[in-house]
Amino acid sequence: MIEVQADALRDKLKEVFGYGQFRGNQEAIIQNILTGQNTFVIMPTGAGKSLCYQLPALMLDGTAIVISPLIALMKNQVDQLNALGINAKFLNSTLTKAEMNRVRRETLDGSVKLLYVAPESLTKQDNIDFLRQAQINFVAIDEAHCISEWGHDFRPEYRRIKEIIKQLGSLPIIALTATATPKVQNDIQKNLQMEDADLFKSSFNRENLYYEVRPKKQAKKQLIQFVKQHKGKSGIIYCLSRKKVEEIAEFLKVNDVKAAPYHAGLDASIRMKNQDDFLNEEVDVIVATIAFGMGIDKPDVRFVIHYDTPKSLEGYYQETGRAGRDGLEGLCLMFYSPNDIDKLEKFNKDKSVTERDNARLLLQEMAAYSESAVCRRKQLLNYFGEQYDSAQCHSQQGCDNCKFPREQFEGKELIHTVLEAAQQTEERFDMSHLSDVIRGEENQYVVSYNHNSLPVYGKGNTDTDDHWRSVIRQTILNNFLQKDIDNVGVLKLTPKGKDFLSNPTSLMLAKDRDFSNLGEEEEPEANAAPVRSHDEALFQILKALRKKVAHSKDLPPYVIFQDPSLEEMATTYPKNQDDLVKINGVGRGKAEKFGRPFLDAIQKYVEENDIVTADDVMIKTAGAKSKLKVSIIQSIDRKIALEEIADLNKISYDELLDEMENICFAGTRLNLDYYIEDILDEERIDDAYDYFLEAESDDIDMALDELGEDDYSEDDLRLIRIKFLSEYAN
Ligand code: ADP
Ligand code: ZN
Hints:
The protein is of the alpha/beta class. The chain has 5 domains: 6-201, 3-Layer(aba) Sandwich (Rossmann fold); 209-385, Rossmann fold; 412-506, Arc Repressor Mutant, subunit A, CATH 1.10.10.10; 536-608, HRDC domain (DNA polymerase, domain 1, Orthogonal Bundle), CATH 1.10.150; 624-728, Arc Repressor Mutant, subunit A (Orthogonal Bundle), CATH 1.10.10. The chain has a 7-stranded parallel beta sheet with strand order 3-4-2-5-6-1-7, with helices on both faces. Strands 8-13-12-9-11-10 form a 6-stranded parallel beta sheet, with helices on both faces. Helix 2 crosses helix 3 and helix 24 (536-553) crosses helix 28. It is globular, with a radius of gyration of 33 Å. Mean pLDDT is 88; it is low at 524-532. The structure holds adenosine-5'-diphosphate and zinc ion.
């Protein structure tokens, strides 16, 4: 290998890539590769890892092999390099025979500078044979965390890479990753047999990112509020399932957000288009599964939202890393619910025991992070083996926990107890065992190790397991205890911890946030109650007004607007006819017929009470104009018998009645005369009609009582009520 003058490197950087300077460790890393050393690069997403192997490949004779897990990613990089005039090729299962031959020929004659290979292709014998003949100068392994079962993205093929490289000769390796906990890092080096590698680890701290975790409650409403506050800015919303992706994308579109879905189940052409639209800013928000984002280099993504709680902190950190690559604002918002964690646990039930245990540990870390009130940045960086002083985050309000600090309590005694427990159990146990010993839990393990006779046993028996776990985590975060790399879960004392044992000092700890009473996500559904609790004073004003209007028109009040509609008005403060129509139960017809005095009353109330109305919070549901409704309305226009309409739409008669009521309550007129006159005689129709005109309420049970079950069925009355409301109210 060669020594390259710094000037020559810099010239090449400018000449080929057009950059004036190296970033961070890039230059040192490249020099290291060029001297033939094994090199291990840990750099956050967006910091510029690719250049670390691309540039040295250009400086050396022969070909560099790049192993990368995703074919799409490979193609992307190869295209970019070709555009720069570099001969890069890929070797994977998508090539035709002719293409394959060309790749081989150009590699053997040394003109291919970078050869991208999928790990599956690398294991094929004829590829190995061919590569043995080529002049390979080094091997780059991108996304090296895929090697570790302890990472978030394990690929079994990755574990065979070293064995094959060996067959190609003794080649230097550069392994690169954007996420590696100390455990994963250790795994990678062991598996690649490069414990001797020079490690280049950049800080993972992304100062411009703001981290926040919110309870997943009324999540859709929170989402729309957030997105509207950042109108026109680029953002990514991650969901765990394809179905959810579709649902949320649709929900945003209905609410006038330029959004598009992205997941592996979409047609490749649609996926490509949606991605391009996002990059070209035709679309502001992309709603995606984690399939989206690898290799996407959009510098001005202003927010990344995790709508569902992610599976691991590594994945989470990687995804949030896509925000604010240009160093400007990047907001990272995550919705957390213990229900999500339970759901994810269930997904793992078909996995092998080890895989399941690994996945569970990752989930536990995720839950602990979310519920903790300690600086998010401190927790994240600690997870990746970095110490961080949260005073800095606190001063720039870089996370929710620093911006809105939680209740604190004195931790001196508690930490001391934790450290005693670790010491007295000889630093060989995990968090739950330490908590059990401290609380004096006389279980099988504690007894079998005779830990119930330790001085620390039962010392903390007045506090709960949750409390002690939180204290133990904060003991780790403060670097008094550390996770043992070789034995998962085992906690060992650090030198700082040993000092503390002999010389404890005051230290404040933060009380965990409480997510136990989260309840349902409370998603607004079509015709569901309004999402925000209403303004009771305004509601009463509107009710009184309704009574007055009803009286003057000689109609029962419910014909004007139903209670849920008034409640919603007292929630969203509609300003005009258009706003009014967005309210459940108010159609265009009703708004025009009865809306004016209500709008005036609301306007007056808003002014008198200095209310700031937020149009942005108006939530429309995708279901509002569903195909089904349209089909029913059209069929009734064509006077098709109701039984037949139900059949046509594959719903029961009862469901059809429900739908018709929804349509009618929402203000669309349905003319059912053709059908009602067929099944009921005129006299009965008139009687029921008169009843509804006089009644206090439109309740069907009350109507049945009054009119007699002998003469009418419940269905009859529901039909007449629809006719009645259609004629008077809509
Ligand atoms: P990573 O793989 O670490 O996520 P990339 O290699 O995709 O990051 O690089 C991120 C972006 O930074 C790319 O647009 C790349 O062209 C750019 N970049 C890399 N090195 C430099 C540099 N020295 N100067 C300016 N831009 C750079
Ligand atoms: Zn913080």
